[in-house]
Design brief:
Length: 60
C-alpha cells in the first residue's frame, strides 16, 4: 500500500480552529515536522483541507 509523507511547512498561528485541529489530528506540531500516513481517503481529505500548510509526497 502506498503511503503519504506529510511535512508541515507553515505555522498554524492565525489559522482557523478547524485547520489547527486537523493538523493536530495528523500529528503535526512544529514546522518541518514530518509524519508518514497510509494513503487512505480519510488522510487525503485532511491533507486537502490544510494543503496550504503542508507538503505531501507519496512514498513506498
Amino acid at each position: 500500500m502506498a503511503r503519504l509523507k506529510i511535512t508541515q511547512v507553515k505555522s498554524v498561528i492565525g489559522a482557523k480552529p478547524k485547520h489547527r485541529a486537523t493538523m493536530q489530528t495528523l500529528g503535526l506540531r512544529k514546522i518541518r515536522q514530518t509524519v508518514v500516513k497510509d494513503d487512505r481517503p480519510e488522510f487525503r481529505g485532511m491533507v486537502h483541507s490544510v494543503r496550504h500548510l503542508v507538503e505531501v509526497e507519496e512514498v513506498e
